[in-house]
Amino acid sequence: MIRPARPEDVPTILRLVRDLAEYERAAHEVKASEDDLLRDLFGAEPKVFAHVAEHEGRVVGFALWFLGYSTWLGRHGIYLEDLYVSPETRGQGHGKALLSELARIADERGYGRVEWSVLDWNTPAIGFYESIGARPQDEWTVHRVTGDALTRLARG
Q1: 49-55 and 75-85: which strand pairing?
Q2: What are the DSSP calls for 34-53, one per residue?
Q3: 7-11, 16-20, 145-149 — which is least confidently predicted?
Q4: What domain range is 29 assigned to?
Q5: Which of 31-40, 66-75, 107-116, 141-150 has the lowest mean pLDDT?
Q6: DSSP summary character for residue 93
Q7: How far is the C-alpha of 37 from the C-alpha of 48, rounded, in Å?
Q8: Residue 60 sits in a domain of what CATH number?
Q9: What is the tally of structural domains in the chain?
Q10: Candidate list 23, 79, 111, 129, residue with the active-site label
């Protein structure tokens, strides 16, 4: 079953975020807290959203997303920040169901796309994404400013 996340799901979502970061060899980079997720998912004006996959009454996966905008399409789109399903429940359709729900939301609301990034070494995920019709955008490279570089840029 796929449903919107609820405040009581936050501890499990944060655990899954940490599991994902460990899988991606970046556990040391997770700084988020339960309070951060509660504020950003369920505060007065949420700008980020989450759906969860339940199996036998427990949350086994999640999709965390927010709106982007394409000036070329002239439409919003969904940017999927994280998609993760617990290893012991993979292969049961939870990941596809989460992506299908985001596609349904995008289609219903007239959004132009659903997109995300995947690590180039994550061949199981790449194979899964390609099996549902996703195609890599090889000509684009993600750039990021963070930490000290962000502070220096902000201060001119």
Answers
A1: unpaired
A2: HHHHHHHHHSSS---EEEEE
A3: 145-149
A4: 2-154
A5: 141-150
A6: S
A7: 9
A8: 3.40.630.30
A9: 1
A10: 129
